[in-house]
Design goal:
alpha/beta; Rossmann fold; six-stranded parallel sheet; two-stranded antiparallel sheet; globular
């Protein structure tokens, strides 16, 4: 190896060590959540609704966040039931269940449809499901996944006109420091920034298609809005690419107490308006 290459590799190694040591430490970040307080009208509205929520792990975080809010506010009475058979639940409730397989968004489309086909679709009410951040990776054809989603939702809306479907943006992850992302790119490695670009692309398609037509819970906006009101993002080709605020996570993807309560509060705000 030439002296130039030795120096170049040594410098790159030192830079990798420096950026790794200087990266965000998710375990050391703790911020108390301060979700918007629901008024009495919103509380009454939520108490009268039957809602199905299909999800995976981030959805579990959000459901726990709702439980947190119920514990903190005695006015908030939501009957949370875990079941894949919402049609069997009588009366108002938030029925939640794990849906499909992570990494396979089509399985979630199919599982959501299958649950509604059991009876809730004809009963009416509110139904929603979300993809996980792992459903979109660097190799994902975002346009294809969105078209599959749009086609299935159109079919369900046509089949069950009494059912109100809420769309949910794809959750995000934190990103590496810019210097570290650059080094990863130089080494030919995929970065979390690259994948968040694709998640933002899906979310933009969802907003473009359904804004002003159907209700949308913008989970990605909640996740990327820091406690001081600013957004967590980086720029790519002069575009703002939103990312999960580090204050809301302990592992870069799932929601901590602050994150889950912020997401839960925002979701309840959306549902209370329906």
């Amino acid at each position: 190896m030439s002296a130039f290459n030795i120096v170049r590799c040594s410098s790159l190694l030192l830079l990798l060590i420096y950026t790794s040591a200087g990266g965000r430490s998710f375990l050391q970040t703790t911020v108390l959540a301060n979700p918007p307080r629901l008024d009495d009208h919103q509380i009454a509205s939520l108490a009268a609704k039957k809602i199905f929520f299909g999800h995976q792990s981030v959805g579990n975080n959000i459901v726990q966040g709702i439980r947190d809010l119920i514990s903190a506010d005695p006015r908030l009475r939501i009957n949370i039931i875990k079941s894949a058979d919402p049609q069997l639940i009588s009366g108002p409730a938030l029925v939640e269940f794990e849906l499909g397989r992570n990494g396979d968004p089509r399985s979630k489309n199919e599982a959501f449809a299958a649950i509604l086909d059991k009876g809730m679709g004809t009963q009416g009410g509110i139904a929603m499901f979300k993809y996980c951040y792992v459903d979109i990776d660097f190799s994902t054809d975002v346009q294809k996944i969105f078209e599959d989603y749009r086609t299935e939702i159109h079919r369900l809306k046509t089949k069950y006109p009494a059912l109100k479907i809420v769309h949910i943006t794809v959750p995000l992850t934190t990103d590496e420091p810019t210097t570290k992302a650059w080094i990863q790119s130089m080494l030919g490695r995929t970065t979390t920034q690259d994948v968040n670009v694709k998640r933002n692309e899906f979310n933009n398609l969802l907003w473009k298609t359904y804004s002003g037509i159907d209700p949308i819970f913008d989970l990605a906006q909640v996740e990327s809005t820091q406690p001081d009101g600013t957004r967590s993002y980086f720029t790519r080709d002069s575009k703002m690419i939103y990312t999960l605020a580090p204050e809301f996570t302990t592992d870069g993807g799932h929601l901590n107490e602050a994150g889950r309560q912020a997401a839960a509060g925002a979701l309840l705000q959306v549902l209370a308006k329906l």
